[in-house]
Each structure stands twice: as C-alpha cells, then as structure tokens.
Design goal:
By secondary structure, the protein is of the alpha+beta class. It is 50% helix and 12% strand. The chain has helices at 2-41, 83-93, 105-111, 141-165, 167-174, 193-203; strands at residues 101-102, 119-124, 132-137, 177-181, 184-189. The protein has a five-stranded antiparallel β-sheet with strand order 1-2-3-5-4, with helices on both faces. α4 packs antiparallel against α5. The longest helix has 40 residues, at 2-41.
Length: 205
Amino acid sequence: MDKQSNISNKSNSRFIIIIIMALLLISIAAWAVIQSVSGINSSGSAGIPDNTATGNIVTAAPASTPAGAETTGSTSTNGQVDMDKLAKDILSKTKFETELKQIDKTVAEELISISEGSELQLYMGNGNYSDEIILITAKDKESAEADQETAVQYLKDMRKSFEAYIPAQAKKISDAFNMRSGCYVVICVTTDIDTAKEIIMAAFE
C-alpha cells in the first residue's frame, strides 16, 4: 500500500507540475498578445501600421481629422496646391535648428522611393539635425497613400539612426507633422511644429 501510495503521490505531483507549467505558458502567451496589441494601438499613424521595431511615428493632424489621415477640406478653388509656395512659406515662417536646402531630385528619390508619376521635394539640413520637409504630389489618391507609407518608413529608419547618438533629434521625428490630402502628402520635422502645422493646414483650406 505504501508503494502504491508513493506512486500515486508522485503521479499527483507530476500532474500538478504539468498544470503549473501549462498555466505559466498560457500567461506568457497572453502577455505577448497584450504587448503586441499595445504596440499596434500606440502606432498612431493614420492607417499606416508600424511594422518595425523602431518605435512609433506620432503624427499630428487637425482635431477633426484622425492623425495622418486624409483631410476633407478643399485644397483650393481648382483643387490644386502650389507646393513650391508652400515650401517657401514653411521655410520662411517656421523655425528650424538648421538651414534647410532642397535636395537634388535624383538623390531625394534614392532616399524616398515614390510612385511612378509622383513628384518629390525634399528639404534637409546639417546631418546632426533631423529637421526636414517632405512634399509629395502624386498622380492620384492611391499613389499618394503608397507614397505616404514610403515616406513614413523612411522617417522610421532615420529615427532609428538618430536614436543611437542624438536621442533629442529622434524624438523630433516622432513628433513630426504628417498629412495627406487627396494626391498631396506633406511631412515636416521641426521643434516649431505648431507653426508648421498652421501653415500647412492653411494651404489646404
């Protein structure tokens, strides 16, 4: 009887251990799911999933518009926006930590691969600063959506580089203003984000 009792006790002990291990595995799996969902919910980018491990791009937008989403207001009387004028307005009225200059078209398109038929204007400054202006005029709404995703991925990669040696500049990228309206995409990286946002939104009213 004692032998059978010992065998029974050992079996019960194994069973309890198996149950505990199973519960532990379930807990770990649940924690992983929660972390995954939390990461998706915090991506904050206008229908642009953050599928990298570099963190979240937080985009700004008018209160009535989801962050980074397409605006509903008319762009102008003929539905077009003068992107050259918009660039000049942003450069002249917004404060940047470095002087921004327009990058050659060929070089710009090597950095940000836009859709065929899209026009890209990229303004960058000293390599120690993350200040930038990205202006894209696509041939249609679908191309604009694809171009916005490409531009955001470019910013994520750039942010990852800055995180390694200039964290403050990386945060600036996270706070970038990111907007799409029709066939237009406008992204601005600056500490003077409120001014940039006001100028950009005014151009699309």
